[in-house]
Amino acid sequence: MIIAVIYGGKSGEHEVSLVSAAAVARNIGGEHTVVLIGIDKDGAWFVQPEQELSRVRGHEDAVLRIVRDDSARVAVVPGGGKARALRTAGGTALPVDIVFPVLHGTFGEDGTIQGLFEMADVPYVGCGVLGSAAAMDKEKTKRLWQAAGLPVVPFICVYARDVHSGALDGRLSEAEQAFGYPLFVKPCCAGSSVGAARARSREELEQAVTEAFRWDTKILIERSVNAREIECSVTGNADISDSVIAYTPGEIAPSYDFYDYNAKYTDPDGAAFYIPARLTEDQLSFIQNTAVSAFKALGCCGFARVDFFADRGTGCIYLNELNTIPGFTPISMFSKMCGASGLGYAALVELLIELGFEQFASKHSLRTDRG
Asked: How far is CA 92 from CA 7, 46, 116, 256, 294, in A?
């Protein structure tokens, strides 16, 4: 079987992808052939030399790079199928059996590349167009969860048009009156806590809003919860199977004000991790059941990490967000939570590939014409 691992991307999470994809490539079984396709920060695709795969497999801590060679640029042909959908600049077909996208954030986790694979008629790992797009947009995520009766932190959404029309001051006053300080500000469609901040005053709120609008055209302002951060891994194809599994929940105890980008990726002492989370059995069960419901409510398939807040004062548990391509290194919470439930990293990778094929076969069984 030929598996194309696609990584990098035109995203603020480009560097994170290089680490995650290296771990995936190292853990795909030797019975498979791995093809690496790197996407640079300008969005150009390049098939990587075989030496790059050998390099990351030979060193446990090696991070993938992107070798840019115009003769190795990759194009995608709509309707090409597994044999002809991917082609190099010279027109040579690059046959693959399935694509494993390890692309965090914009243009990788938001449904755009999933739609490209659908048009190309190529199997791929992970959530489809709808689930990816809905989960990437934090406002839409919360509204769908509210409609499903699932618990979310109260919020308001502020748009770039509010800035241009002069309505921003009123919207900030609305948030102050509704929630009080501190407030939490985040872009709606950015990941890894990029552009997110906690505000304790109007001055800090205005600064946080300005920064968040650098990353997106709409932002969320939420009541800040004095919360413990809980996560839960989920796998399965909810629309075609009842076997959706939520794994042992884990807890993140950041040493920062909140679990920001530095705590996640740059500071080795940025957080402590506990698996299982330090909660009661009833709370753990509630989180697992809610994670499955949240996964289904967004139309997800394949895998996702569902993030929660557990209020330190009230004990209430809220859904925060869902990541359809979470951090995927061996020490990332997604893989560690699966491992705590007995599913090792290599077996997890193999399961996700199987789920991708299952989803592809299910779609191909459907009629697309009236002939």
From this structure: 21, 13, 19, 50, 42
Mind listing the pLDDT tens digit for each residue in 29-63? 999 999 999 999 999 999 999 999 999 999 999 99
d(CA 4, CA 103): 13
Q: Give the chain's length.
A: 371
How far out from the chain centre does Cα 72 lie? 28
Q: Is 119 exposed, middle or buried (0-12, 13-18, 19+ CB in 10 A)?
A: middle
Q: What is the DSSP string of 275-326?
A: SS-SS-HHHHHHHHHHHHHHHHHTT-EEEEEEEEEEETTT--EEEEEEESS-
Contacts of 207 (CB under 8 A, 6+ apart): 197, 199
Angle between helix 129-136 and helix 138-147 axes, rounded to 10 deg: 100
Assigned token pair, 125: 């790992």
- Note the helical H segments in the chain: 14-27, 50-58, 81-84, 112-120, 129-136, 138-147, 160-164, 168-179, 202-212, 261, 281-297, 333-340, 345-364
pTM: 0.91
| pLDDT tens profile 151-177 | 999 999 999 999 999 999 999 999 999
Whether the CB-CB separation of 124 and 108 falls below 8 Å is answered with no
From 158, 26, 34, 39, select the one nearest 109 (Cα to Cα).
Answer: 39
The residue assigned the tokens 């406002």 is 139
